[in-house]
# Entry
Amino acid sequence: MQKHKTVVIGTGPSGLTAAIYLARANLSPLVIEGLQPGGQLTTTTDIENFPGFPDGIMGPELMDNMRKQAERFGAEFMNGWVDAVDFSQRPFKITVEGSGTIEADSVIISTGASARYLGIPGEQDNIGRGVSTCATCDGFFFRGKKLIVIGGGDSAMEEASFLTRFATEVTVVNRREELRASKIMQDRARENEKVSWALNRKPLEVVAGDTGLKGLKVLNNETGQEELIEADGVFVAIGHTPNTTFLQGHLELDGHGYVIVKPGTTETEIPGVFACGDVQDTKYRQAITAAGSGCMAAMDCEKYLEGSVVHDWSETLDR
Ligand code: NDP
# Structure
């Protein structure tokens, strides 16, 4: 059985930053990459708010750079899906599907969050046939078509603006009149003449025919009438769910499944197990905050391995 001083699970900005710091501290981390190496940023286009890139940088390029930086200092990468953990004994045990069990003195969880779906009829049946959660991945297929983006957050604004590069018209459907998105992202979408708005409409069904999507059936909350908004593609941008299924019953999670850490640190309830990035962040969820918390996790972990951590959960706030 392989044994490591520290194992990082997940390779978004938090996991890779943790790996860079751990590798530079000579801790030779094993970094486990899941089904989406590089995390959510690999499905995004220009990143304009990551400091150090005045002209912006593409998401996949940023993640590739971070990975190379971690490798340069000795981080070891392994591809696999973690399907079980055992934190009840030391060393900790991590089971990777198809690759057996790995032992670790410490673990950093940075598995991020995944796109959410609405759960309405027609949605799952049409994934890959007109329904998508990734404009960067699938926008290209809708050149000259009419599209819908569902959601009112920053993701929806970003996707709507991006999709106008391909589509003739993009309609944003939001269940409320107000948008949750930041003002700058809203303004950018509103200024785009290819973006139209169907606000205060609850999505009911993705409607498809033999030759592809017809559109989205919605409930107009003002009139109480059902309407069909015609479109060739529907992009769902309604937020994310933390990737913590494999932790259930092994680590304290909040009501939404986020890992609970001691405020101001990356320590979980189990000494030696740390969490960073979107998997424990219900508030900021930015690439730069994820990277920052990855740095914190590596430093907390290093102190733990030196044996100098005093674990006190008495101050932990209820969520
Ligand atoms: P958010 O949680 O911010 O927004 C989700 C949106 O989807 C809301 O408008 C919400 O409506 C709507 N929604 C949720 N569930 C449903 C449902 N069942 N039916 C219909 N609508 C639903 O998620 P985002 O992914 O947009 O953003 C997450 C974080 O990432 C934010 O902090 C954001 O700022 C950040 N981000 C930053 C970007 C950037 O700076 N470039 C780009 C993208 C994201 P309601 O408001 O009614 O709850």
Observations:
- Residues 49, 118, 151-156, 158, 174-176, 180, 182, 203, 237-240, 285 surround NDP (CB under 6 Å).
